[in-house]
Structures are given as C-alpha cells and as structure tokens.
C-alpha cells in the first residue's frame, strides 16, 4: 500500500526523480573505501586460497588436489570429526542453555542483570583463556582433581578429561552455552505469556504446553543460536589445538594450521581450507536465514509482570533449577578464577601456598612479556580505528538501501564470520608472501587480519541499531532540511552512539584475544598476549601463562564493562 | 498560490493513487478517509519521501516535485511524533534551523518564540523521552514550524492521544495555524477532527478524492453515497424517481412517497433507480404530512444529551436522533418525518 514499502527506491533522497544526481551516488561513495579494503585484504587472499585449492602443481585448474584429499581416509576422518564434535558441542550447548534462557526470560530475581551481562562472555573471552582455565581446573593436576583426591583420599586423579573428545566438548559447551541463553532468552522474553495463558485456559499444560505452544515460538531463536554455536565450534581452533592434544582429535582448522605452518604445504592446506569453508558457509547461510525469521517478535515487545525466581525455587522443580544455577556459576566462573589464582603462585605445583607477584614483576619489568602486552594494545587500538568506520559504513548502507542484489551484498559483507581466521591467515600467506609486496610478518598484516575478523561484529551491532531506528526519524530530519550527509552526522550517527561504543569495544576485544590468524602471521617482534600464552602452555609454564592470561582477562573485563555500560545490543 | 497537486499518479501493485487538488494559501485542508485510502501516501508524496509516477507539485507557483525532501521547505508532524531521542526539547526544535544554516542568535530567538507559541516555555532543557504524549506532540509541531516552512503537513497527529487531550490539542493546533496562517494539510480518519479543523475537507477513497468542500457542504450536501455514509450517521432508502413537482423530485420507496429537493436535479432522469439519504438529527417525531414514515421502535441507545432510536418500517431501518425528553419504548409504533430540503438523492 505504499505506506512502508517502496522496495526499489533508495531511501536516501526520496528516489529517482527527486534525487537529481545524488540517488545512488551517496551510498556508493560511502562504500568505496570499505570495498577497496575488503577487496585487498579479504577477498583477494581468500581468492588465492580458492585458486590454490582448485589448481594442480603446475597451476592449471583442476580438482585433483581436492579429490585426492576427499579420498584420503586421514582427511576424511578429520572432516568427519570436525562436524561430529561440532554437532555434539551444539547439542550440549543448547541443552545447557535452554533452562537458563527460560529463567532469564520468565523470572525476575536479584542479580539478573549481572547474569544477563555474563552471557556476553563467549563474545569477549578469548578462547585461549578457556583453554588455560580448563587445563588448570579440569586437568589431571588441576583444582578439581586435587580437590576430589583430597576429599576422597584418592591416589590417582579422579577425572581424566584433558586431551580427549570430552575436553573439547566440555570446553565448547561451556564457552558457547551462554550464547544460547542470550539469543533464546531475548526472543523468549518478547513472547507475551498471554499465548501460554490462553493455551492453559484451553486445557494444555506441562510438557504439552511447552511442546505445542512455547517451543514453536522460541524455535527460531533456538535454531539461530544453534547455527551460530555450530559455526563457532566448527571453526574453533585453540581449544582443539590444545585440549584435543594431538592428531587423534584434529579438526579442519587445526589441520590447515599444521599444513601451513609445520608441513609448509600450502596447496593441501588451501584445498582443505576450501572444504572447511564450504561447510561453514552452508551453516552461516542457515544462520542468517534463521535470524531474519526470529526478528518477527521484535515488534511485539510489551512488558509484562514476571514472577520472582524464589517462587520457582520453592516449587517441585526448584531443586533442578537451583542445581542448574549453581553448576552454571561454577562452570563459568571456576576456570577464570583458577587462572587468576594460579597466576600468583611462585612455582608450578599447587601444594606450595606461596603467594607472589613474581610473574607480574617479570611482565612489567620489560622484555618479551611486556612487549607482547604492548603489541596487543597496539593491534587492538588499530583494529578499532579500522573496523569501526568500516563496519559502521557497511551497516549503514546495508540497512538504509534496498536495491537489486543488496541481499547478496549483505551476505558478502558477513562472509568473514563464516571464513575461519586460519583460512584468512593462510590467504595472507599465499597472497602476500611475494606479489605485490610481502606483508607477512609486518604489523599491519596482523591489524588488517584482525580488522577483517572484527568488523562483521561491528556490523551486527550497528545494523541492529540502524534497523531499529524508526524510518520516520530520518524523514523528519529530511523534512527539516537535512541532506544525506547531515542526516548521517547529526541524526543517525548520534543515535547509534551506544551501538558504536559497543562495536568498538567488541573490535578491541576480538583483536586482543585473537590467536588463530596471529599465529599464522606473527614473528618474534609481533608476539601478542594470546600467542605468548600459547607458547607458555607449550612449554608447560602454566604460572606464566596464567599471569599473561590474567592481564588479558583484565583487558577483556574492561571491554565487557564498556559493552555493558553502553547498553548496545549484542 | 498555495499547494497545487497536479495530475499526480502513483501506481502500486494493488492500488492506484490519482490526485488533482489544491490547498489554498493559508488554508487548513483536512484530508479525510478510511485507513488504506492513500491519505498517508499522499502526504509522503508531497513531502518528497515517495516519487510520483507522473504529475507535478507546485508550491506558491514553484515546482517542488523535482526537489529532494530536504529542500522542499515543508514541515511535517508525524503520527508517532518522531522526536529525536538524543536531543532535548530545545535542540529538537532547533534541528531544522541548524540544518538550514541559521545563525545561532537567530536560532535561539526562534526557538524561544516557538516554545512560547506551543506553551512549553519552561521545557527547553527537558529530555523529550520524559515528556507526555501531548507535550511531545507540541514539540513536534514546534519543530516542524521552526524553519518557517511554506507548508505544514500533519499525519494523524492526535490519533495516539486520549479523547480529552485530543480535543484540547486540536484547538491548540487550530490556534497556531490561524496565528501563523500557514498553508496546512491535515490527514485524519476522524471525521469530527476534520469537521472541526478544516476550512475545507477532502474526502478520499481508494486513492482518489471523492469530494472537496467546506465542512458544512460535505456534511449536508454530500456528493455521493460514500461521502454521505462516511461522515456522520446516515439513513438511506432505495426507490424509483416517479416525477417532478417543480423543485422537488418525487420518489417511490418501500416506505411511501418521499419528496426531495435535489441539489443537482438535472442529473436525474425519470424512473431512475435512486437512493434517498437524510441525517438522523433531521428526523422529527410526527411533523409535517410530507415525507412521513410510519414504523416500530426496535432499539434504543441512550447517549446522555440525546438518544438514538432505531425504527423499522416495511423492511427498512432508520435511525432517529432525538432529544432525551422524548420517552419511547421498544415496540412502540411511531411516525416521523423529514423535510425535503434535508434529503439528498443519489443514483443507485
């Protein structure tokens, strides 16, 4: 009816005729810089991986490398395991997350805000910290085992989870279940309990009520969360690399890394990367589709009264939820607390209770550790400076204009989410080691890689805000004389402020915690905190790793605080 | 002068908008119609948010449809106010001034002037998110008026407010419009608003204007059945034109012979199928011999100052708007009449 829909007209100036010369020019102008950057530092490297995987040794196009790979039982096993562990991890995360989503959506309790904030953790906590925390908490020599041994007078560690599928699954689901809590509860909250009340008045109750009425409504949220978790687990690197503990539990990512950095076989690496990319892109596509679905409910946000949590805890189900809450708190907090606590030890070995700042003294007295810290800060800052404008502009154009192919453009923009940073690093190695110039081993290669990894998250945060803006606001501004630039500067940018702060914090957090691409691209001068932690774990220096980890967690905590304060939607 | 909308056409897959009308200089034109008739689209076309497929817009003789929205100098008040949430009251009002390059001293004076105009003198520093609906609407009005637009568009500005506030604010809007004598187009689906506010009313249906006239003539002399039934309550009865008696047309209907003084008598030929229309408040109990209708009371609605009586007569139903003191009970047989010059005639 024309009230809202004017599909083919760009919304900038009122369209075709009224535009007189500035119709598509403005968005194109905004897009030029980002497009140039992405072309050089994302699509070109990605393309060279593609070419690498699809050509034979003499450079002719051929499927030989890939088909050889797909016939090799060793690689088939790796592909199978990659998908299998991701499926299991996703299922576990969803199962762990659903009760939490229910509690957050339907009940009020003291500390709810804090718990809500804690669900941002997977987005800001670097995976290397998870690894470290797990080793120290669940490890054979870790807190849990020592506690159990002391309690029950055991000679042997009671739980042997490290370096096994169990460890990978445990770490993945711990790391990712808050994502499920977050996404599902935000949808669940928007569903007014009146539908359930209506169903109850019609005789539905208990499991049937959930199955027939509630589940169908929250299903888009569950699926979209599951798809996201699945992608994360598919592309997970550090967790598998360390906790998998060897070739037995290798995934595509880890194998690509080994091929590129250890065997120096970029060709097989490229082919394997290609296979991985295809798998993850299929799921990325599913995720984007599902996300569009779940946004229906956003219009129905109407607040309603929620019962206090205490009323649930007193009910027959109370014990279950109480146990759940306790377990979650332990699972989330314990590894992190362990890392911090352990960093104050003098020497390895839990028996000695000596508390010491020895490692912090070493870090701040200069040398390699301090340099790693400064490098991380520098990369983080540069990444924010690049990723923020990049993501903001893309989000702005993406949410403001609809033209033929804009959906494709959106998919292209979000592509880095589905392309692992290992592949990105591999691409840089392939594309820029010789021609046109060698950027591998330079600080800006790492910054560019971090930017490519971080900007989709800026887009995610920013476009949510741009899309939520009532269309009548820019219209009001235009009727008051604001041209396209003024509209952007004086209205849309200020309105997106908190989202942009959130986006910037995100970009910083991602850069500071990034280990995959950095491992592919760094040299001795460019060691970052996560790389340092990885190396310290490799040499079994856990106190040092925990001290560096605590510093990293401090950065991430600041990021977390900023995100929480800014209140942008994640 | 004023706004001239010339042969504007806009085609949608299931809807076609065709417009050709004028808002005179300083006039308050109310654009009235049911939802989905294209009122808002019309407004957005004029504002420059949508382009027409053909036709042109002229403001004070100058063509404006070729200009982008931000150069048209048209003030708009939106249904949901659409105040800028990141700015306070003063900066909201000053937004347009800033965009159009006013000096800060002039802008400051202008903002004060407008705060006074909409009686929000003390509100300058308030956050707009802390204002009541009525206050927000005043700010929206002030913001639209601040840069001295050539035309003011209002899109159902009162529909989100409660009934009492609505009445107060519409007086306020009218006062401001008169004070500035700004050319105004006011979109509404509320007939009472249109009647109270409009110098003229344009009644719209399915993308075109059915009638554009003064409120009095629209109400009393609707051009067709749609206008007649859309505004106010209507009694209609189908019949056949029998003959003429001087000025009057004589119509045979199931409830007897009715005499009508049609406004456009020449449009009707002998034995045309017609519809006779009259308003409930023009019905009198008893009354004259002409146009007397007998019937039985089937329903009563008591409305305080008056009452609506529903009467059934030979399969037809009529509504009578009577004073409270008349006492009637369901089932009573009554007769009422309506004078010929209160009746209108439409072709079936």
Record the SSE blueprint.
The complex is a heterodimer of chains A (570) and B (348).
Chain A: H1 16-19, H2 25-54, H3 64-71, H4 73-106, H5 112-118, H6 121-124, H7 127-138, H8 143-152, H9 165-190, H10 194-201, H11 206-235, H12 238-244, H13 252-262, H14 266-294, H15 309-313, H16 318-342, H17 358-364, H18 367-400, H19 406-418, H20 421-432, H21 443-468, H22 472-479, H23 484-495, H24 497-513, H25 516-521, H26 529-538, H27 542-566
Helix pairs in contact in A: 2-14, 2-18, 2-20, 4-9, 4-11, 7-12, 7-16, 7-27, 9-11, 9-12, 11-14, 13-14, 14-19, 14-20, 16-27, 18-21, 18-24, 19-21, 21-24, 22-23, 24-27, 26-27
Chain B: E1 3-12, E2 15-23, E3 28-32, H1 39-47, E4 54-59, E5 62-63, E6 74-77, H2 89-99, H3 104-117, H4 133-145, E7 151-155, H5 163-180, E8 183-188, H6 191-197, E9 200-205, E10 208-213, H7 215-220, H8 225-230, E11 235-245, E12 248-253, E13 256-260, E14 273-278, E15 283-285, E16 292-302, E17 306-313, E18 316-323, E19 333-338, E20 344-347
Parallel strand pairs in B: 3-8, 3-9, 6-7, 7-8
Antiparallel strand pairs in B: 1-2, 1-4, 4-5, 9-10, 11-12, 11-14, 12-13, 14-20, 15-19, 16-17, 16-19, 17-18
Q: How would you sum up the major sheet of chain A?
A: none
Computed over alpha carbons, the radius of gyration of chain A is 25 Å
List the secondary-structure elements of chain A in sequence, H or E: HHHHHHHHHHHHHHHHHHHHHHHHHHH
- Which descriptor suits the 3D outline of chain A? globular
- Biggest sheet overview of chain B: 6 strands, mixed
The proportion of residues forming helix of chain A, as a percent range, comes to: over 70%
* SS class of chain A: mainly alpha
Uncertain ranges of chain B: none
Please give the alpha-carbon distance between the first and last residues of chain A.
34 Å
CATH architecture of the largest domain in chain B: 3-Layer(aba) Sandwich
| Broad shape of chain B | elongated
- Count up the helices of chain B: 8
Q: List the helices and strands of chain B in order.
A: EEEHEEEHHHEHEHEEHHEEEEEEEEEE
CATH topology name of the largest domain in chain A, in short, is MetI-like fold
Radius of gyration computed on alpha carbons of chain B = 24 Å
């Amino acid at each position: 009816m024309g009230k809202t829909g004017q599909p083919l007209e760009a919304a900038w100036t009122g369209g075709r005729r009224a535009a007189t010369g500035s119709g598509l020019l403005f968005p194109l102008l905004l897009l030029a810089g980002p497009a140039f950057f992405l072309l050089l530092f994302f699509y070109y490297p990605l393309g060279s991986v593609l070419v690498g995987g699809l050509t034979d040794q003499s450079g002719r196009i051929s499927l030989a490398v890939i088909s050889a790979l797909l016939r090799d039982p060793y690689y088939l096993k790796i592909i199978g395991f990659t998908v299998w562990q991701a499926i299991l991890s996703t299922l576990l995360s969803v199962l762990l997350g659903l009760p939490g989503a229910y509690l957050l959506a339907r009940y009020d309790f003291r500390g709810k805000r804090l718990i809500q904030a804690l669900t941002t953790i997977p987005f800001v906590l670097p995976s290397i910290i998870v690894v470290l925390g797990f080793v120290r908490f669940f490890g054979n020599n870790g807190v849990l085992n020592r506690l159990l041994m002391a309690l029950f007078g055991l000679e042997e560690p009671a739980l042997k989870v490290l370096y096994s599928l169990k460890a990978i699954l445990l770490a993945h689901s711990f790391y990712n279940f808050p994502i499920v809590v977050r996404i599902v509860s935000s949808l669940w909250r928007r569903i007014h309990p009146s539908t359930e009340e209506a169903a109850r008045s019609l005789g539905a109750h208990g499991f049937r009520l959930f199955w027939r009425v509630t589940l169908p409504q929250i299903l888009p949220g569950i699926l979209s969360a599951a798809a996201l978790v699945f992608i994360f687990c598919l592309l997970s690197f550090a967790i598998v690399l360390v906790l998998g503990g060897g070739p037995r539990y290798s995934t595509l990512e880890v194998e690509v890394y080994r091929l590129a950095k250890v065997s120096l076989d970029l060709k097989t690496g490229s082919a394997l990367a290609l296979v991985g990319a295809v798998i993850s892109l299929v799921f990325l596509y599913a995720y984007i589709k599902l996300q569009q679905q779940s946004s229906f409910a956003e219009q129905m946000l109407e607040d309603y009264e929620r019962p206090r949590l205490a009323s649930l805890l007193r009910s027959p189900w109370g014990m279950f939820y109480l146990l759940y809450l306790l377990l979650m708190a332990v699972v989330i907090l314990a590894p992190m607390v362990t890392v911090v606590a352990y960093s104050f030890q003098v020497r390895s070995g839990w028996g000695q209770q000596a508390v010491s700042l020895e490692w912090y003294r070493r870090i701040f007295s200069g040398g390699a550790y301090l340099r790693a810290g400064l490098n991380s800060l520098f990369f983080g800052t540069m990444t924010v400076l690049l990723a923020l404008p990049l993501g903001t502009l893309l989000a702005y154009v993406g949410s403001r204009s609809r033209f033929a192919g804009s959906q494709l453009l959106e998919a292209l923009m979000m592509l880095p989410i589905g392309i692992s940073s290992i592949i990105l690093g591999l691409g840089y190695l392939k594309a820029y080691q010789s021609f046109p110039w060698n950027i591998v081993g330079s600080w800006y290669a790492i910054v560019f890689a971090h930017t490519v990894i971080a900007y989709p998250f800026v887009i995610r945060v920013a476009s949510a805000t741009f899309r939520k803006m009532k269309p009548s606001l820019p219209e009001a501004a235009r009727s008051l004389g604001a041209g396209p630039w003024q509209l952007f500067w004086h209205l849309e940018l200020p309105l997106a402020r908190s989202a942009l702060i959130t986006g910037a914090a995100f970009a910083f957090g991602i850069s500071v915690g990034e280990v995959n691409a950095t491992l592919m691209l760094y040299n001795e001068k460019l060691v970052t905190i996560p790389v340092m932690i990885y190396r310290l774990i490799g040499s079994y220096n856990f106190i040092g790793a925990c001290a560096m980890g605590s510093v990293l967690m401090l950065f991430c905590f600041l990021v977390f605080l900023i995100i929480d304060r800014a209140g942008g939607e994640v | 002068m004023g706004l001239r909308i010339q042969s504007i056409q806009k085609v949608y897959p299931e809807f076609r908008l065709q417009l050709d009308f004028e808002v005179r200089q300083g006039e308050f034109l109310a654009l009235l119609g049911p939802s989905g008739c294209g009122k808002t689209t019309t407004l957005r076309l004029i504002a420059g948010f949508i382009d027409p497929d053909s036709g042109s817009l002229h403001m004070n003789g100058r063509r404006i449809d070729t200009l982008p929205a931000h150069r048209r100098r048209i003030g708009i008040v939106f249904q949901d106010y659409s105040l800028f949430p990141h700015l306070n009251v003063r900066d909201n009002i000053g937004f347009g001034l800033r965009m159009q390059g006013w000096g800060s001293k002039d802008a400051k004076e202008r903002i004060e002037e407008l705060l006074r105009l909409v009686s929000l003198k003390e509100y300058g520093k308030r956050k707009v998110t802390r204002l009541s609906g009525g206050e927000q609407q005043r700010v929206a009005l002030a913001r639209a008026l601040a840069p001295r637009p050539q035309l003011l568009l209002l899109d159902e500005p009162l529909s989100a407010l409660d009934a009492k506030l609505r009445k107060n604010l519409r007086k306020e809007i009218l006062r401001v419009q008169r004070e500035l004598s700004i050319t105004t187009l006011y979109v509404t689906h509320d007939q009472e608003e249109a009647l109270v506010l409009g110098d003229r009313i344009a009644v719209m249906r399915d993308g075109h204007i059915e009638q554009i006239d003064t409120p009095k003539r629209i109400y009393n002399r609707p051009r067709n059945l749609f206008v007649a039934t859309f505004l106010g309550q209507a009694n209609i009865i189908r019949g056949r034109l029998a003959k003429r008696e001087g000025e009057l047309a004589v119509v045979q209907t199931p409830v007897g012979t009715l005499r009508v003084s049609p406004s456009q008598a020449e449009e009707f030929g002998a034995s045309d199928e017609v519809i006779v229309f009259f308003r409930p408040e023009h019905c009198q109990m008893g009354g004259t011999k002409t146009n007397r209708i007998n019937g039985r009371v089937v329903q009563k609605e008591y409305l305080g100052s008056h009452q609506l009586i529903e009467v059934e007569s030979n399969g037809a139903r009529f509504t009578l708007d009577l004073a409270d003191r008349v006492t009637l009970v369901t089932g009573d047989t009554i007769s009422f009449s309506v004078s010929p010059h209160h009746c209108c005639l439409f072709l079936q």
